[in-house]
Amino acid sequence: MAKHWWILVAGIIIGLLSAGLILVASQPPRGAAILLRPPPSPAPVVVHVTGAVHEPGVYTLPANGHVEDAIQAAGGMTTEAERDLVNLAEPLQDGLQISVPREGQQSSESITTTTGKTEKEESNGEESASPTISHPININTATQSELESLPGIGPVTAQKIIAYRQENEFKIVEDIQKVSGIGPVTFEKIKDLISVGTSSQ
Asked: Is the predicted pLDDT of residue 34 greater than 80, yes or no?
């Protein structure tokens, strides 16, 4: 008789524990849910594309874009564009003006910064009017600025010309093609503007 009584008590206890576990498991989780939001996207930039492009104008582009993206938005370069004078990999900045130079323009004219000055003017710290340069110029004695006045000759190529002539005198105008970066196309543009004798200035 006592044995049956203990079995009954044990059954009741097991039943209560089971009911308690079910009750706890069925309780909804406490506390407010945490909503994870993605980080804010950077604001787009507005740039002004001018020069030798098919559709010059003001364009709104992603903040992580590059000059190439802006030129593509403007319909791409025209056939008269000096493609090699544009740094397509330069990151975009809000308010940037991108001017794609045409044949005969200087590389320093390709990108205008938010200050309104060209990159070359900013590096000098001031704006200055370029003196009038007469052609043809003597490539054996021409200054950096005189060389840069030639179509397709930027600051880097002008420095290469000066470095080359320190070791080798230009005998004929065709010798300028021995300078790295000056090929037949560029030579055709400048051959009538250069000499190896006395400058006409």
From this structure: no
